[in-house]
Amino acid sequence: MWDKFKGDPLMGFIFVIFGLIFLVPGIGYGLSSPGGLPGPGAGFFPTITSALTVFFGLWIIYDGLKKGSVDYFGQDPEQRSNFKIIAVVCAAFIAFLLIWVYINFFLGIAMLSLFYNFIFKRTWKFNLIFTVVLTGMLYVVFERLLYIQFAL
């Protein structure tokens, strides 16, 4: 059964579907802010990121069909161990969402960054510097420059 769904075209299709799921409501929110308010509208960033997700999904499909694709569902031990990593990454992202909803977005981002860098065996020095820089940049750009709040 899985033989028909192997490879890059399937992953590209999933990217396109998720991009479209967020693109349609993003456009509905509006790309520009309502009369007289500075900055982009509520739908600006969802529309841009969703459009890029659709574009790169289509690119993955094209590239996979042109050059051949990868067997994502193989049975060798390395591929099976990757499923465990994917499950841990997904669980960490769910924990991030819970921290965001019940505590604070920036705390969640910092913890997610620390955890991902730890899982992927980055050095502690890199991990701490990357986390501080990422969290700080998100805070400055979105909270201070664009006045976008990440509160739910």
Keywords:
single chain, mainly alpha, 2 domains
Distance between the termini: 41 Å
Beta-strand content: under 5%
Major sheet details: none
Low-confidence stretches: 1-5
Number of helices: 5
What series of H and E elements makes up the topology?
Answer: HHHHH
Write the SSE topology.
Blueprint: H1 8-29, H2 44-67, H3 77-102, H4 105-119, H5 124-145
Helix pairs in contact: 1-2, 3-4, 4-5
General description of the model:
- The protein has helices at residues 8-29, 44-67, 77-102, 105-119, 124-145.
- It has two domains: 2-67; 77-145.
- It has 152 residues and is mostly helical.
- Residues 1-5 have low confidence and may be disordered.
- The chain has five helices and no strands.
- Helix 4 runs antiparallel to helix 5.
- The longest helix is centred in the middle third of the chain and has 26 residues, at 77-102.
- The N and C termini lie far apart (41 Å).
- Helices cover 72% and strands 0% of the residues.
- It is flat and about 55 Å long.
Summarize the structure.
With 152 residues, the protein is an all-alpha fold. 72% of the residues lie in helices and 0% in strands. It folds into two domains: 2-67; 77-145.
